[in-house]
């Protein structure tokens, strides 16, 4: 995905692990959001000073955008593999929701989905808001495409409203993100996922 143009930072030799620093920044933004994450928070987590941060990543906005893309890449790969590799549409959607339930409430990292939580955190920052919106659209598109494939392969009735059904399942997933932040366990979210599956016209 090509985000709305945020200018590239100027290059300069670095003496730190850029990938590790980006991972640390991602976790800070994931936990605190764009506005609440201060430059002090970011520098401390990344183990670098502000001059190095600006030289390597440009601005706080550019760092956030790169961290969000990094999150989408590492988090989305397994999620959408689970969705797309399942033999039937029903199994794909169930894998999508159950994988989400386990990952969103994983106690070893910040709770919830960074993309969903960023929907509010990035308001008022035009470039970031557009980037977050595009990430959410991509998720909806992938779910809808899997359901459409289900029709083509005979898993779903030909008259299935895949657009509405996709929005339903993505809405459930996004709601689970908020529930995870509020303390829901993986088991509780998996129960939600299984309940949501009853809405599908699986036959």
Automatic annotation (TrEMBL):
Keywords: DNA-binding, Transcription, Transcription regulation. Residues 15-75 form the HTH tetR-type domain. InterPro entries: DNA-bd_HTH_TetR-type_CS (IPR023772), Homeodomain-like_sf (IPR009057), HTH_TetR (IPR001647), Tet_transcr_reg_TetR-rel_C_sf (IPR036271), TetR_C (IPR011075). Residues 38-57 bind DNA. One of its GO terms (molecular function) is DNA binding. Pfam families: TetR_C_13, TetR_N. This is Transcriptional regulator, TetR family. It comes from Prosthecobacter debontii.
């Amino acid at each position: 995905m090509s985000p709305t143009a945020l200018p590239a930072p100027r290059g300069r030799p670095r003496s730190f692990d850029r990938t590790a620093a980006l991972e640390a920044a991602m976790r800070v933004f994931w936990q605190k959001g764009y506005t609440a994450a201060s430059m002090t928070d970011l520098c401390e987590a990344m183990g670098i000073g502000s001059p190095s941060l600006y030289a390597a990543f440009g601005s706080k906005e550019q760092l956030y955008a790169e961290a969000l893309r990094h999150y989408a890449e590492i988090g989305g790969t397994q999620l959408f593999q689970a969705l797309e590799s399942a033999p039937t549409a029903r199994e794909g959607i169930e894998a999508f929701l159950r994988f989400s339930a386990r990952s969103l409430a994983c106690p070893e990292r910040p709770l919830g989905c960074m993309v969903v939580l960023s929907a509010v955190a990035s308001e008022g920052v035009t470039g970031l808001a557009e980037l977050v919106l595009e990430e959410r659209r991509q998720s909806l598109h992938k779910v809808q495409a899997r359901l459409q494939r289900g029709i083509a392969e005979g898993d779903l009735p030909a008259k299935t409203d895949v657009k509405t059904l996709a929005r339903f399942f993505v809405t459930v997933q996004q709601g689970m993100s908020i529930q995870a932040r509020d303390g829901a366990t993986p088991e509780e979210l998996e129960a939600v996922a299984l309940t949501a599956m009853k809405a599908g016209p699986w036959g």
